């Protein structure tokens, strides 16, 4: 078993809203081994994004800590690439320039920045779109650029928060296939947040289930489907069993869903 790359240790996060306080994440602990792909699923509002935001260094924990390579994180850093649901590309820059811009803090020259941008665009299948502007691309293509940008500074951990949440079903499936291929080729350590249980099973080595708020980890389910993963696997008995198990687990943790109510 390889070493732990990312360790979440007794993490809690409380928000103050006026006089009220909202406990979003409550004493969450887990580890992700190097090169492991771990997804977190759970009912809406259970604290998944909060967890990722703290891991990205964009919010301080109220209690506990997150470590990458044994170092407590204290803010955003280039050891972590982050991809959110919204692509956040600069519309006035070309695809290549968007990535080069992200690399401006690296101690590398212009030529190296350009080469890295082109290399990562190739990885996500957009080698021919380097000079296009974001407005000329589909949602799926923009999200590919966001992934290429996150990979361009060679982070040791990739943090993804519902990255395909805004895409239609077809684009979403294409992106899942692309991501699994990129992961299988490059073996990254990934923390992936999603609502979509099929997506979590298809992509992951492990799926963590969070309870309804305050979010706690209630299950840690290994996904032992063979790799490389193929779309056809989604109809296999093993896949469907895992999906059923996770669905049940998420539903039972959410009082509104368990009661058959709509949110
Ligand atoms: N900045 C904030 N200020 C106050 N409350 C917040 C803030 N961010 C999140 N919350 C609250 O913390 C809880 C967890 O939110 P979070 O966005 O992490 O959940 P989530 O599981 O990602 O939800 P979803 O699946 O719907 O995206 C929610 O009750 C939310 O309203």
From TrEMBL:
InterPro entries xref list: AAA+_ATPase, ABC_transporter-like_ATP-bd, ABC_transporter-like_CS, ABC_transporter_ATP-bind, P-loop_NTPase
Keywords attached to this Swiss-Prot or TrEMBL record, sorted alphabetically, are:
ATP-binding, Nucleotide-binding, Transport
Q: Which CDD domains match?
A: ABC_NrtD_SsuB_transporters
Tell me the Pfam families matching this sequence: ABC_tran (PF00005)
- Start and end of every ABC transporter domain? 6-237
Tell me a Gene Ontology molecular-function term this record carries: ATP hydrolysis activity
Keyword rRNA processing carried by entry: no
Q: What is the name listed in the Swiss-Prot or TrEMBL entry for this protein? A: ABC transporter ATP-binding protein
